[in-house]
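dude i think i finally got it to work??
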Amino acid sequence: MTECYLIDSNIWHYAYIIPANKSFLEIHTKALTFLEDALSNESITIATTHYHIAEIMDLLRKGKLEESHREKIFNGFMTPKFKIIGLSTKILKLCFQKSLASGIHIYDYLVALPLKGVVTEIFSADDHFQHQDFKEIATVTNPLSPWILREGRLPIKST
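look at this
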């Protein structure tokens, strides 16, 4: 059986953007190894949404990844390795409602909720993904553990 993964934006970011702070180099190495393994494993499909692709590409642009490398990554999303799911108005409304109820920004819901019933596992180092809303979508695993990430904050190492 083919596994179908959601790989959160933070893993893509750390895989391709070498941190300026060398104390975070371990995160880069873990993310790159994990992503390369997932991309090369023929028994894994990666599910994503149009929104998520745009988010990843913007993070890589802000991280100043070369345009040619970003283009190669973008074109990779258009291959059979990836299953791209569109966003419906119904899902958008549900993401908004769950965001209001949890206090977690809508972007995390836009990444994950459209993939409910599609993905077998979610890979994210963002501690928001440990919320029950995301665990109801699929098993959540932090491949960068013990590192915990959240947008707008420095990574922390859990004890």
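Residues 25-40 form the longest helix (16 residues).
im so relieved honestly
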